[in-house]
Amino acid sequence: MVRIKNITENSPACFTEIKPDDFLVAINGEEIHDVLDYMFYVSETSVEMKIMRDGETFSVVVRKDEYDDIGLEFDTFLMDKKQSCRNKCVFCFIDQMPPNMRETLYFKDDDARLSFLQGNYVTLTNLEQRDIDRIIKMKLNINVSVHTTNPELRVKMMHNRFAGEKLKYIYQLAENGIQLNCQIVCCPNLNDGDELRRSLTDLGGLMPNISSMAVVPVGLTKFRKGLFPLECFTKEKAGETIDIISEFQAVFLEKYGTRTVFPSDEFFLIAGRELPKAEYYEDYPQYENGVGMLRSLIDEFDDALKTAEWEGGKRRVSVATGYAVYETIKSLAEKAEKYFPLLKCDVYRIRNDFFGDTITVTGLITGQDIVKQLDGISLGDNLLISSSMLMRDENVFLDDMTVEEVEKKLNVKIRVTRNDGFELLDSIMGIVY
């Protein structure tokens, strides 16, 4: 049962007796608990809704085109509270954050509904059999944080005594035709090496219902006092991990026509190895997990340069980026300068003093580190930053500094750019659409 907040104007529901503050109890005889129930059962052309008002129930029938929405609005997108994580993973980034940050940054979501709707990864540890049955009934493809298929090791890594037995859900989902994207946060001397081989072997046995797998290296901040002892990947360890993944890619490619499992870009950067070509990443199934992002950016930038035309006068811009991708961004800036002699693009690598210098990714750079390290430097017409540095749909860095505050302190106009080669070149050239 879910409270109805409002009814959309001119929607099918608008022409019924339903009112705000009524409660939606059921659709076509099926109880409604959240957005998944609502979306699934409201798709029919004839919808009978059981409505409760002041403790009394009545029925409303709406006829509409298939998949059209009825027009009911609810208090939250999920029509329910977000489901929080029940684990205390040894590598959890949230546990490695400093105190006194905004409260929302400390919330650990582990919500299977958001996995289907927004692509979030879930561990399945807070699900019960009825939840799995619903996923199968609704044919919802989801993303799963596996980390290891060794039950005992999964319990140890997640600090959850049920984490091992919940692995059965992965097999159950796959066996019922649910497509799974999987990820493994890899920790040196814990779930790498032979344990990684075991996990890839077990998950490979569920293909073709394992759509893709990403292996990403653990990220460690300086705020780890009292936490499980972990190590960063060394150049050698990163290379070994790439090699293990390559072994399985060869097997999967021959048997299924797809590599399926991919190391994130960080592994190649840590190992000092050249990034693979675009064909390696196939259709970039794990792009949002940092797999192939750099290759895509490079190729797009090169394509953009082929058709770009410089119509302005002299222009000078700066780019703030993380240590991990500094050389890549610098090489792209140099290409642009060679194409357009009137263009100057300076690239600055920002050391992560906020989280610690072991964090080298661009997306975790804070406003205060940018200000501290670029203060007093003439940054030209614009300072370019990646959109990954900002909170989703907000002009706010992780440390709560706003883009406007950084602009004011550095006396430069900031231009936020997505991880897109065409957009990056446009930003460097000052093109505005």
Structural class: alpha/beta
Supply the CATH architecture of the largest domain.
Answer: Alpha-Beta Horseshoe
Radius of gyration: 25 Å
User: What form results from the Cα inertia axes?
Assistant: globular
Q: What is the total tally of β strands? A: 15
Largest sheet: 6 strands, antiparallel
CATH domain fold name of the largest domain? pyruvate-formate lyase- activating enzyme
The helix/strand order is: EEEHEEEHEHEHHEHEHEHHEHEHEHEH
Q: What's the N-to-C terminus distance?
A: 46 Å
Summarize the amount of helix as a percent range.
Answer: 25-40%
Strand coverage percent: 15-25%
Uncertain residue segments: none
Number of helices: 13
- The first-level CATH class of the largest domain is given as Alpha Beta
| Integer tally of domains | 3
Report the average pLDDT across residues: 95
Report on the structure:
The chain has 3 domains: 2-74, PDZ domain (Pdz3 Domain), CATH 2.30.42.10; 94-290, Alpha-Beta Horseshoe (pyruvate-formate lyase- activating enzyme); 296-429, Rossmann fold (3-Layer(aba) Sandwich), CATH 3.40.50. Helix content is 31%, strand content 19%. Helix 3 links the parallel strand 7 and strand 8 (142-145). The chain is built from 13 helices and 15 strands. The protein is an alpha/beta fold. Strands 1, 2, 3, 4, 5 and 6 form a 6-stranded antiparallel sheet that branches. A 5-stranded parallel sheet has the order 7-8-9-10-11. Strands 13-12-14-15 form a 4-stranded parallel sheet, sandwiched between helices. It is globular. The mean pLDDT is 95. Helix 6 packs parallel to helix 7 (235-256) and helix 7 crosses helix 8. The protein has helices at 35-41, 112-118, 129-138, 151-158, 167-175, 193-204, 235-256, 265-271, 293-307, 326-339, 367-374, 403-410, 421-429, and strands at 2-7, 23-27, 30-31, 46-53, 56-63, 72-74, 121-122, 142-145, 180-186, 210-217, 261-263, 315-322, 343-350, 382-386, 413-417.
